[in-house]
């Protein structure tokens, strides 16, 4: 496989990112329910600034069934995302769109929840220039990696080596410790 830093990434490529565990602190068995619980992971704001110069589009795709469980409202989620975008812009980065699957698994009739590809299809509808063969999905779970594979993307797993052992390795094209490490490896 081509080393990550030798992929022919240019301004025609799209970067898809999971949110919790990639951009911000993930609470196991819980949800970020308000902005005060949202903490960017180390180096993420700088990474997003750097990646904004490399990729044409950066899109967040996130499963947020805390809304479906009534632990937070759609308005709460929208406020968290608005504040996240404000901080990213303040540091010079860009996120072009955020797609959130908020239904419970049992109610996901639109097949938005990862690993289903509904959010990827919505992104393609909104940004027709997206080519999934020139897209990278970065996530920290097996469902993120399966989502990327189901959509025909290159997958990058972020997290430590121990957590990587919990993921079906055939779904993972590349591994980086963090989004910051990925950004450093793709810088030209």
Structural write-up:
- The chain is of the alpha/beta class.
- It has a single domain (19-134, 146-186), classed as HAD superfamily/HAD-like (Rossmann fold, 3-Layer(aba) Sandwich).
- It contains six helices and six strands, in the order βαβαβαβαβαβα.
- The chain has a six-stranded parallel β-sheet with strand order 3-2-1-4-5-6.
- Helix 5 links the parallel strand 5 (154-158) and strand 6 (174-176).
- The longest helix is centred in the middle third of the chain and has 17 residues, at 74-90.
- The two termini are 19 Å apart.
Task: Give a topology summary.
Elements: E1 14-17, H1 44-52, E2 57-63, H2 74-90, E3 97-101, H3 118-126, E4 135-139, H4 142-151, E5 154-158, H5 161-164, E6 174-176, H6 179-186
Parallel strand pairs: 1-2, 1-4, 2-3, 4-5, 5-6
Helix pairs in contact: 1-6
Compute the CA-based radius of gyration. Answer: 15 Å
CATH superfamily: HAD superfamily/HAD-like
CATH architecture: 3-Layer(aba) Sandwich
For the largest sheet, list the strands in their spatial order: 3-2-1-4-5-6
Give the strand tally.
6
Helix/strand-derived class? alpha/beta
Q: Which features would summarize this protein structure in a list?
A:
188 residues; alpha/beta; Rossmann fold; 6-stranded parallel beta sheet; 6 helices; globular
Put the structure in a nutshell.
By secondary structure, this protein is of the alpha/beta class. The protein has helices spanning 44-52, 74-90, 118-126, 142-151, 161-164, 179-186, and strands at residues 14-17, 57-63, 97-101, 135-139, 154-158, 174-176. Helix content is 30%, strand content 15%.
């Amino acid at each position: 496989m081509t080393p990550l830093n030798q992929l022919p990434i240019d301004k025609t490529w799209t970067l898809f990112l999971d949110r919790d565990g990639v951009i911000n602190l993930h609470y196991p068995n819980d949800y970020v329910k308000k902005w005060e619980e949202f903490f960017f992971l180390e180096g993420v704001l700088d990474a997003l600034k750097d990646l904004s110069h490399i990729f044409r589009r950066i899109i967040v795709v996130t499963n947020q069934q805390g809304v479906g469980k009534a632990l937070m409202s759609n308005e709460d989620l929208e406020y968290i995302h608005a504040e996240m975008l404000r901080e990213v812009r303040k540091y010079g980065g860009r996120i072009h769109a955020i797609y959130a699957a908020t239904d419970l698994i049992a109610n996901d009739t639109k097949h938005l929840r990862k690993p289903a590809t509904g959010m990827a299809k919505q992104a393609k509808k909104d940004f027709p220039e997206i080519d999934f063969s020139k897209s990278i999905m970065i996530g920290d779970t097996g469902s993120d990696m399966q989502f990327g594979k189901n959509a025909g993307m290159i997958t990058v797993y972020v997290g430590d080596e121990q957590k990587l052992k919990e993921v079906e390795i055939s779904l993972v094209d590349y591994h980086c410790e963090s989004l910051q490490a990925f950004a450093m490896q793709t810088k030209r």
